[in-house]
User: Fold this.
Amino acid sequence: MQLATRRAYAGKVVRVDVDTVRFPDGSTGDLELIRHPGAAAVIPCASDPAGGDPTILMIRQFRHAAGGPLWEIPAGTLAPGEAPEACAHRELREETGVTAERIERLTSILTTPGFTDEVIHLFWAQGLTRGAAARERDEFIEVVPQPLSGVLAGIRSGEVRDAKTIVAILYMAGFILGL
Amino acid sequence: MQLATRRAYAGKVVRVDVDTVRFPDGSTGDLELIRHPGAAAVIPCASDPAGGDPTILMIRQFRHAAGGPLWEIPAGTLAPGEAPEACAHRELREETGVTAERIERLTSILTTPGFTDEVIHLFWAQGLTRGAAARERDEFIEVVPQPLSGVLAGIRSGEVRDAKTIVAILYMAGFILGL
Assistant:
Protein backbone atom coordinates (compact mmCIF):
# COMPACT_ATOMS: atom_id res chain seq x y z
CA MET A 1 0.00 0.00 0.00
CA GLN A 2 1.29 3.45 -0.93
CA LEU A 3 1.55 5.90 2.00
CA ALA A 4 3.21 8.87 0.33
CA THR A 5 4.94 9.92 -2.88
CA ARG A 6 7.28 12.66 -4.03
CA ARG A 7 8.46 13.50 -7.52
CA ALA A 8 12.24 13.10 -7.43
CA TYR A 9 12.96 13.84 -11.10
CA ALA A 10 10.90 15.15 -14.00
CA GLY A 11 12.56 15.10 -17.43
CA LYS A 12 11.22 15.33 -20.97
CA VAL A 13 10.08 11.68 -21.00
CA VAL A 14 11.13 10.14 -17.70
CA ARG A 15 9.51 10.87 -14.34
CA VAL A 16 10.96 9.30 -11.17
CA ASP A 17 8.85 9.13 -8.00
CA VAL A 18 10.02 8.01 -4.58
CA ASP A 19 7.04 6.26 -2.98
CA THR A 20 6.75 5.34 0.69
CA VAL A 21 5.15 1.91 0.72
CA ARG A 22 3.74 -0.45 3.36
CA PHE A 23 5.00 -3.97 2.58
CA PRO A 24 2.96 -7.17 3.08
CA ASP A 25 4.63 -7.76 6.50
CA GLY A 26 3.55 -4.33 7.79
CA SER A 27 7.00 -2.72 7.54
CA THR A 28 7.50 0.42 5.44
CA GLY A 29 10.17 1.58 3.03
CA ASP A 30 10.92 3.93 0.14
CA LEU A 31 10.84 2.64 -3.44
CA GLU A 32 11.89 4.44 -6.61
CA LEU A 33 9.49 4.08 -9.50
CA ILE A 34 9.62 5.39 -13.08
CA ARG A 35 6.03 6.49 -13.79
CA HIS A 36 4.93 5.71 -17.34
CA PRO A 37 1.58 6.47 -19.04
CA GLY A 38 1.53 3.06 -20.78
CA ALA A 39 2.05 2.09 -24.41
CA ALA A 40 0.69 -0.01 -27.25
CA ALA A 41 2.53 -2.22 -29.76
CA VAL A 42 1.09 -3.97 -32.80
CA ILE A 43 2.13 -6.79 -35.16
CA PRO A 44 1.23 -5.75 -38.73
CA CYS A 45 0.14 -8.98 -40.52
CA ALA A 46 0.34 -8.16 -44.22
CA SER A 47 -1.12 -11.47 -45.40
CA ASP A 48 -3.71 -13.96 -44.19
CA PRO A 49 -2.34 -15.73 -41.09
CA ALA A 50 -4.44 -18.78 -41.99
CA GLY A 51 -1.94 -19.31 -44.82
CA GLY A 52 0.52 -20.57 -42.22
CA ASP A 53 3.47 -18.20 -42.68
CA PRO A 54 2.06 -14.65 -42.85
CA THR A 55 4.18 -11.65 -43.84
CA ILE A 56 4.96 -9.34 -40.89
CA LEU A 57 5.91 -5.68 -41.41
CA MET A 58 8.84 -5.58 -39.02
CA ILE A 59 10.56 -2.28 -38.31
CA ARG A 60 14.26 -1.67 -37.93
CA GLN A 61 14.65 1.30 -35.60
CA PHE A 62 17.67 3.22 -34.33
CA ARG A 63 17.76 2.94 -30.52
CA HIS A 64 20.34 4.84 -28.56
CA ALA A 65 19.71 2.45 -25.62
CA ALA A 66 20.88 -0.44 -27.80
CA GLY A 67 23.76 1.45 -29.43
CA GLY A 68 22.27 0.87 -32.88
CA PRO A 69 19.25 -0.44 -34.75
CA LEU A 70 16.79 -2.94 -33.23
CA TRP A 71 14.18 -5.22 -34.79
CA GLU A 72 10.81 -4.19 -33.40
CA ILE A 73 7.12 -4.01 -34.13
CA PRO A 74 5.45 -0.56 -34.32
CA ALA A 75 4.79 0.88 -30.86
CA GLY A 76 4.42 4.08 -28.91
CA THR A 77 3.26 5.78 -25.77
CA LEU A 78 -0.44 6.39 -25.08
CA ALA A 79 -1.47 10.01 -25.58
CA PRO A 80 -3.44 11.52 -22.66
CA GLY A 81 -6.88 9.88 -22.60
CA GLU A 82 -6.07 7.64 -25.57
CA ALA A 83 -7.34 4.03 -25.53
CA PRO A 84 -4.65 1.38 -26.17
CA GLU A 85 -6.35 0.16 -29.37
CA ALA A 86 -6.56 3.71 -30.77
CA CYS A 87 -2.87 4.15 -29.93
CA ALA A 88 -2.04 0.90 -31.80
CA HIS A 89 -3.91 2.17 -34.91
CA ARG A 90 -2.14 5.55 -34.70
CA GLU A 91 1.39 4.21 -34.17
CA LEU A 92 0.93 1.67 -36.97
CA ARG A 93 -0.09 4.50 -39.32
CA GLU A 94 2.65 6.91 -38.18
CA GLU A 95 5.52 4.42 -38.19
CA THR A 96 4.69 2.28 -41.24
CA GLY A 97 2.13 4.34 -43.21
CA VAL A 98 -0.28 1.41 -43.01
CA THR A 99 -3.97 1.53 -42.05
CA ALA A 100 -5.51 -1.60 -40.50
CA GLU A 101 -9.04 -2.85 -41.02
CA ARG A 102 -8.97 -4.97 -37.86
CA ILE A 103 -6.85 -4.80 -34.71
CA GLU A 104 -7.18 -7.52 -32.05
CA ARG A 105 -5.71 -7.54 -28.56
CA LEU A 106 -3.22 -10.28 -27.69
CA THR A 107 -2.27 -9.50 -24.06
CA SER A 108 -0.66 -6.81 -21.87
CA ILE A 109 2.77 -6.90 -20.23
CA LEU A 110 4.71 -5.14 -17.52
CA THR A 111 8.05 -4.43 -19.17
CA THR A 112 10.27 -4.37 -16.07
CA PRO A 113 8.29 -4.12 -12.81
CA GLY A 114 11.39 -3.80 -10.63
CA PHE A 115 11.57 -0.08 -11.41
CA THR A 116 8.71 1.05 -13.68
CA ASP A 117 4.91 0.73 -13.86
CA GLU A 118 5.02 0.76 -17.68
CA VAL A 119 2.40 -1.53 -19.25
CA ILE A 120 2.50 -2.30 -22.98
CA HIS A 121 -0.74 -3.49 -24.57
CA LEU A 122 -0.03 -5.88 -27.45
CA PHE A 123 -2.16 -6.19 -30.59
CA TRP A 124 -2.09 -7.71 -34.04
CA ALA A 125 -3.43 -5.99 -37.12
CA GLN A 126 -4.91 -7.42 -40.30
CA GLY A 127 -6.47 -6.04 -43.48
CA LEU A 128 -3.66 -3.56 -44.15
CA THR A 129 -3.79 -0.69 -46.67
CA ARG A 130 -0.61 1.20 -47.59
CA GLY A 131 -0.31 4.97 -47.11
CA ALA A 132 2.40 7.46 -46.14
CA ALA A 133 4.26 7.27 -42.82
CA ALA A 134 4.47 10.35 -40.55
CA ARG A 135 7.40 9.79 -38.21
CA GLU A 136 8.57 12.03 -35.41
CA ARG A 137 11.75 14.03 -35.89
CA ASP A 138 13.89 11.65 -33.81
CA GLU A 139 12.45 8.42 -35.20
CA PHE A 140 14.66 6.57 -37.68
CA ILE A 141 12.65 3.63 -38.89
CA GLU A 142 12.89 1.28 -41.86
CA VAL A 143 9.94 -1.03 -42.64
CA VAL A 144 11.11 -4.56 -43.52
CA PRO A 145 8.48 -7.17 -44.52
CA GLN A 146 9.46 -10.64 -43.29
CA PRO A 147 7.74 -14.03 -43.17
CA LEU A 148 6.72 -15.02 -39.62
CA SER A 149 9.09 -18.00 -39.93
CA GLY A 150 11.95 -15.54 -40.47
CA VAL A 151 10.99 -13.48 -37.43
CA LEU A 152 10.82 -16.68 -35.32
CA ALA A 153 14.30 -17.64 -36.60
CA GLY A 154 15.54 -14.18 -35.53
CA ILE A 155 14.08 -14.65 -32.05
CA ARG A 156 15.66 -18.11 -31.79
CA SER A 157 19.08 -16.81 -32.87
CA GLY A 158 18.96 -13.79 -30.55
CA GLU A 159 18.93 -11.25 -33.41
CA VAL A 160 15.49 -10.05 -32.25
CA ARG A 161 16.10 -8.74 -28.72
CA ASP A 162 13.22 -6.38 -27.92
CA ALA A 163 11.00 -7.86 -25.19
CA LYS A 164 7.60 -6.52 -26.40
CA THR A 165 8.34 -7.76 -29.93
CA ILE A 166 9.31 -11.26 -28.75
CA VAL A 167 6.27 -11.57 -26.45
CA ALA A 168 3.86 -10.38 -29.17
CA ILE A 169 5.29 -12.66 -31.89
CA LEU A 170 5.60 -15.79 -29.70
CA TYR A 171 2.15 -15.17 -28.21
CA MET A 172 0.55 -14.81 -31.64
CA ALA A 173 2.48 -17.71 -33.14
CA GLY A 174 1.90 -20.02 -30.18
CA PHE A 175 -1.60 -19.27 -29.06
CA ILE A 176 -3.41 -17.91 -32.11
CA LEU A 177 -1.75 -19.63 -35.03
CA GLY A 178 -1.12 -22.81 -33.03
CA LEU A 179 2.45 -23.23 -34.29
CA MET B 1 26.71 8.03 -31.76
CA GLN B 2 26.97 9.51 -28.27
CA LEU B 3 28.59 12.97 -28.15
CA ALA B 4 28.14 13.87 -24.47
CA THR B 5 26.37 12.72 -21.33
CA ARG B 6 25.32 14.21 -18.01
CA ARG B 7 23.87 12.50 -14.95
CA ALA B 8 20.47 14.14 -14.43
CA TYR B 9 19.32 12.03 -11.45
CA ALA B 10 21.00 9.48 -9.19
CA GLY B 11 18.74 7.62 -6.76
CA LYS B 12 19.16 4.42 -4.77
CA VAL B 13 18.44 2.18 -7.77
CA VAL B 14 17.62 4.45 -10.69
CA ARG B 15 20.13 6.61 -12.56
CA VAL B 16 18.94 8.94 -15.33
CA ASP B 17 21.42 10.29 -17.89
CA VAL B 18 20.72 12.91 -20.54
CA ASP B 19 22.85 11.95 -23.54
CA THR B 20 23.57 14.14 -26.53
CA VAL B 21 23.35 11.83 -29.54
CA ARG B 22 24.10 12.09 -33.26
CA PHE B 23 21.21 10.45 -35.14
CA PRO B 24 21.59 8.41 -38.36
CA ASP B 25 20.72 11.49 -40.49
CA GLY B 26 23.55 13.55 -38.93
CA SER B 27 21.28 15.70 -36.75
CA THR B 28 21.80 15.80 -32.98
CA GLY B 29 19.46 15.75 -30.00
CA ASP B 30 19.22 15.00 -26.29
CA LEU B 31 17.83 11.65 -25.11
CA GLU B 32 17.00 10.57 -21.56
CA LEU B 33 18.21 7.11 -20.65
CA ILE B 34 17.84 5.08 -17.46
CA ARG B 35 21.23 3.38 -17.03
CA HIS B 36 20.98 -0.16 -15.73
CA PRO B 37 23.79 -2.65 -14.92
CA GLY B 38 21.84 -5.58 -16.44
CA ALA B 39 20.09 -8.53 -14.84
CA ALA B 40 19.61 -12.29 -15.04
CA ALA B 41 16.42 -14.36 -14.76
CA VAL B 42 16.11 -18.14 -14.58
CA ILE B 43 13.38 -20.75 -15.04
CA PRO B 44 13.76 -23.39 -12.30
CA CYS B 45 12.78 -26.73 -13.92
CA ALA B 46 12.11 -29.08 -11.01
CA SER B 47 11.55 -32.17 -13.15
CA ASP B 48 12.90 -33.59 -16.38
CA PRO B 49 11.64 -31.45 -19.28
CA ALA B 50 11.81 -34.50 -21.56
CA GLY B 51 8.76 -35.76 -19.64
CA GLY B 52 6.70 -33.22 -21.60
CA ASP B 53 5.17 -31.12 -18.81
CA PRO B 54 7.97 -30.25 -16.35
CA THR B 55 7.30 -28.62 -12.96
CA ILE B 56 8.40 -24.97 -12.82
CA LEU B 57 9.16 -23.24 -9.50
CA MET B 58 7.27 -20.02 -10.17
CA ILE B 59 7.48 -17.17 -7.69
CA ARG B 60 4.68 -14.89 -6.58
CA GLN B 61 6.27 -11.57 -5.65
CA PHE B 62 4.90 -8.33 -4.25
CA ARG B 63 5.59 -5.53 -6.75
CA HIS B 64 4.72 -1.98 -5.90
CA ALA B 65 4.87 -1.14 -9.64
CA ALA B 66 2.00 -3.60 -10.23
CA GLY B 67 0.04 -2.62 -7.12
CA GLY B 68 0.22 -6.21 -5.80
CA PRO B 69 1.76 -9.63 -6.39
CA LEU B 70 3.05 -10.76 -9.80
CA TRP B 71 3.86 -14.19 -11.21
CA GLU B 72 7.55 -14.23 -12.07
CA ILE B 73 10.64 -16.39 -12.37
CA PRO B 74 13.60 -15.71 -10.04
CA ALA B 75 15.65 -12.72 -11.20
CA GLY B 76 17.89 -9.93 -10.05
CA THR B 77 20.42 -7.29 -10.96
CA LEU B 78 24.02 -8.19 -11.80
CA ALA B 79 26.45 -7.37 -8.99
CA PRO B 80 29.54 -5.35 -10.10
CA GLY B 81 31.74 -7.67 -12.20
CA GLU B 82 29.31 -10.58 -11.90
CA ALA B 83 28.73 -12.81 -14.94
CA PRO B 84 25.06 -13.27 -15.93
CA GLU B 85 25.20 -17.06 -15.32
CA ALA B 86 26.66 -16.57 -11.82
CA CYS B 87 23.91 -14.03 -11.11
CA ALA B 88 21.27 -16.57 -12.25
CA HIS B 89 22.72 -19.20 -9.85
CA ARG B 90 22.81 -16.66 -7.00
CA GLU B 91 19.31 -15.25 -7.49
CA LEU B 92 17.87 -18.76 -7.82
CA ARG B 93 19.47 -19.70 -4.49
CA GLU B 94 18.52 -16.46 -2.70
CA GLU B 95 14.90 -16.30 -3.89
CA THR B 96 13.91 -19.98 -3.87
CA GLY B 97 16.57 -21.72 -1.73
CA VAL B 98 17.35 -24.03 -4.64
CA THR B 99 20.78 -24.94 -6.00
CA ALA B 100 21.02 -25.92 -9.69
CA GLU B 101 23.35 -28.52 -11.19
CA ARG B 102 23.04 -27.06 -14.70
CA ILE B 103 22.06 -23.63 -15.96
CA GLU B 104 21.71 -23.01 -19.70
CA ARG B 105 21.29 -19.71 -21.50
CA LEU B 106 18.10 -19.15 -23.49
CA THR B 107 18.52 -15.62 -24.88
CA SER B 108 18.91 -11.97 -23.80
CA ILE B 109 16.33 -9.20 -24.06
CA LEU B 110 16.13 -5.43 -23.91
CA THR B 111 13.20 -4.81 -21.55
CA THR B 112 12.08 -1.42 -22.87
CA PRO B 113 14.66 0.25 -25.13
CA GLY B 114 12.68 3.48 -25.47
CA PHE B 115 14.05 4.69 -22.14
CA THR B 116 16.47 2.19 -20.58
CA ASP B 117 19.52 0.16 -21.62
CA GLU B 118 18.53 -2.68 -19.26
CA VAL B 119 19.35 -6.13 -20.65
CA ILE B 120 18.02 -9.28 -18.95
CA HIS B 121 19.86 -12.52 -19.66
CA LEU B 122 17.46 -15.48 -19.56
CA PHE B 123 18.40 -18.99 -18.38
CA TRP B 124 16.81 -22.27 -17.43
CA ALA B 125 18.02 -24.43 -14.57
CA GLN B 126 17.87 -28.19 -14.09
CA GLY B 127 19.07 -30.68 -11.48
CA LEU B 128 17.66 -28.74 -8.53
CA THR B 129 18.49 -29.37 -4.84
CA ARG B 130 16.42 -27.74 -2.10
CA GLY B 131 18.01 -25.49 0.55
CA ALA B 132 17.09 -22.34 2.48
CA ALA B 133 16.20 -19.06 0.77
CA ALA B 134 17.98 -15.82 1.77
CA ARG B 135 15.77 -12.97 0.62
CA GLU B 136 16.46 -9.27 0.91
CA ARG B 137 14.55 -7.23 3.45
CA ASP B 138 12.11 -5.76 0.92
CA GLU B 139 11.54 -8.98 -1.03
CA PHE B 140 8.20 -10.71 -0.40
CA ILE B 141 8.28 -13.92 -2.37
CA GLU B 142 6.29 -17.14 -2.29
CA VAL B 143 7.57 -20.15 -4.27
CA VAL B 144 4.72 -21.91 -6.13
CA PRO B 145 5.53 -25.09 -8.11
CA GLN B 146 3.39 -25.33 -11.26
CA PRO B 147 3.33 -27.58 -14.33
CA LEU B 148 4.58 -25.83 -17.47
CA SER B 149 1.10 -26.36 -18.97
CA GLY B 150 -0.34 -24.31 -16.08
CA VAL B 151 2.16 -21.47 -16.61
CA LEU B 152 1.33 -21.45 -20.36
CA ALA B 153 -2.38 -21.27 -19.47
CA GLY B 154 -1.59 -18.29 -17.20
CA ILE B 155 0.26 -16.54 -20.04
CA ARG B 156 -2.62 -17.21 -22.43
CA SER B 157 -5.21 -15.85 -19.97
CA GLY B 158 -3.15 -12.76 -19.12
CA GLU B 159 -2.63 -13.75 -15.47
CA VAL B 160 1.14 -13.90 -16.09
CA ARG B 161 2.05 -10.34 -17.10
CA ASP B 162 5.79 -9.97 -16.46
CA ALA B 163 7.66 -9.61 -19.79
CA LYS B 164 10.89 -11.46 -18.86
CA THR B 165 8.86 -14.38 -17.47
CA ILE B 166 6.70 -14.65 -20.60
CA VAL B 167 9.69 -14.46 -22.96
CA ALA B 168 11.65 -17.08 -20.99
CA ILE B 169 8.74 -19.53 -20.71
CA LEU B 170 7.54 -19.18 -24.34
CA TYR B 171 11.13 -19.35 -25.62
CA MET B 172 11.85 -22.52 -23.62
CA ALA B 173 8.50 -24.11 -24.46
CA GLY B 174 8.63 -23.20 -28.13
CA PHE B 175 12.22 -23.63 -29.09
CA ILE B 176 13.65 -26.16 -26.63
CA LEU B 177 10.71 -28.38 -25.81
CA GLY B 178 9.22 -28.02 -29.29
CA LEU B 179 5.67 -27.43 -28.04
In short: The mean pLDDT of chain A is 93. Chain A touches chain B through 61 residues (CB under 8 Å). The two ends of chain A are 41 Å apart (CA to CA).
